[in-house]
Amino acid sequence: MNNTVKGIMLGAAAGVALTAAFGTPKVGTATAATSTYEHLELLGDIFERTRSAYVEEVDEKELIESAINGMLTSLDPHSSYIPPKDFGDFQADTKGEFGGLGIEVTMEEGFVKVVSPIDDTPADKAGLKAGDFITHIDSESVLGLTIGDAVERMRGLVGTDIELTIAREGADEPFDVTITRDTIKIKAVRYRVEGDIGYVRISKFSEKTFDDLAAGMASIKEELGANAVAGYVVDLRNNPGGLLTQAVAVSDAFLDKGEIVSTRGRDQQNADRYNAQLGDLADGKPVVVLVNGGSASASEIVAGALQDHRRGIVVGEKTFGKGSVQTIMPLSSKGAIRLTTARYYTPSGRSIQALGVEPDIVVKQVELDTEKNAEEERPRYSESQIRGSLANDSLTEEEKEIRRKEEEAHAATEKLRKEDYQLAYAIDLLHGLSVYSGFAEQ
After folding, report:
1. Choice among 80, 204, 308, 324 that is catalytic
2. 150, 185, 220 — which closes off a domain?
3. Which of 58, 82, 97, 226 is the most buried (most CB within 10 A)?
4. Is 185 tagged catalytic?
5. Does residue 69 lie within any of the structural domains?
């Protein structure tokens, strides 16, 4: 019999012997141990028969790895075995640089489902969307593959092409997309100024996400002046998640106190709670959090924490609904297992597992037909355009300048509305909150 399987069986047998040596166990415990030993013996028997009698010669190492992966993937879609050759890629992923297409995927109904494409990656540029199903890879069906197998097939040398067959809701038929593999360098945080609004886009929670966020918000304040910032948009759309510690740090960036998230595993006594520390990078300014169906895991922790504390208004569409925590456990073989070890809960005690975070304001992303709108748009005139109309004598030069800047901001938002309707809505909402808070302070 294969030495690896022998080791499993001998370990189980040793466990039974130790139990007997330290006293008579309860009947239930003894029965369970015997049952476990019998099933391990069954596993060894099946392995030996397969190895010796299968129609073709099998690779014993691959057979054992498949058995391990099958055991883990039967638990939930997020538990899996990471062989040594893939573990290095996984570690690079959390550090912000790796090779591939640039998509976060899961398995659903036997097909590979896109959780979200990552910003500025080959998959994103090719037009893949959250919720797409990958049915074939290079014309071969993905049915029967594990998520690890599918990911491995999508990897390849930089510069090589891969053809994915995509089934998309709303599309009449599946269609093919050819993508060129590339080295994926993730810039976790991007930022810019939209009028008097600070826009911060977080695409993934990797090791440097919080540091990049803090630097970005500092740059926004420097550009506008801290007191001139009307509010912040935190864009978590199509953010597939990442490190729990970074989700906690980003949430803490906008909170002064209170619980951010709690995690609870099998043993309730080992529950972990993460609390905010004093200090708000947004200086108390209003915050709008943008989410959609591609916002998952760590993104949902941030959205849920700010929503429960009423620190941010969540706008967009319902999130993905991944409310579990995975722990990476390195193995002596240089590989690792990715095992679901806990569920997480928002500050109010709710689990978003399979439910997602419901936005405070539901706003669908709509694509405006700009050509049709241009055809239907008619010229509009105002009093100021009529020859001989009276001039306004109530505004000072300073007030006229303020009015001019407001008109420029509104024009910019109107243009943005055609490009990104959800973001334009968030900016309008922040302007409304800013005006309201101004009245409240008077």
Report:
1. 308
2. 185
3. 82
4. no
5. no
**322 in active site:** yes
Asked, for residue 77, whether it belongs to a domain, the answer is no
- Alpha-helical (H) ranges within 162-262 are 209-224, 244-252
Q: 119, 235, 322, 324: which one is catalytic?
A: 322
Burial of 379: CB neighbours in 10 Å, binned 0-12, 13-18, 19+: exposed
- Residue ending a domain, among 185, 219, 252, is 185
pLDDT in tens, the chain (442 residues): 443 333 222 223 333 222 223 334 454 566 777 789 899 999 999 999 999 999 999 999 999 999 999 999 999 989 999 988 888 777 767 777 767 899 989 888 889 999 999 898 999 999 999 999 999 999 999 998 888 889 889 988 889 999 999 999 999 999 999 999 999 888 899 999 999 999 999 999 999 999 999 999 999 999 999 999 999 999 999 999 999 999 999 999 999 999 999 999 998 877 899 999 999 999 999 999 999 999 999 999 999 999 999 999 999 999 999 999 999 999 998 899 999 999 999 999 999 999 999 999 999 998 655 555 544 555 666 666 677 767 777 778 887 777 677 777 667 777 888 889 999 999 999 988 877 665 445 4
User: Do residues 17 and 145 both lie within one domain?
Assistant: no
Domain around 117: 97-185
State yes or no: is 308 an active-site residue: yes
Region of 426 on the Ramachandran plot (φ > 0 left; ψ -120 to 50 alpha; else beta): alpha
Is the same domain home to 345 and 408?
yes
How many domains does the structure of the chain reveal?
A: 3
Percent helix, percent strand, percent coil in the chain, to nearest 5:
40, 25, 35
Q: Bridge partners of 351?
A: none
| Catalytic entry in 203, 297, 299, 324 | 297
Question: Would residue 418 count as lying in a domain?
Answer: yes
Within a domain: residue 168?
A: yes
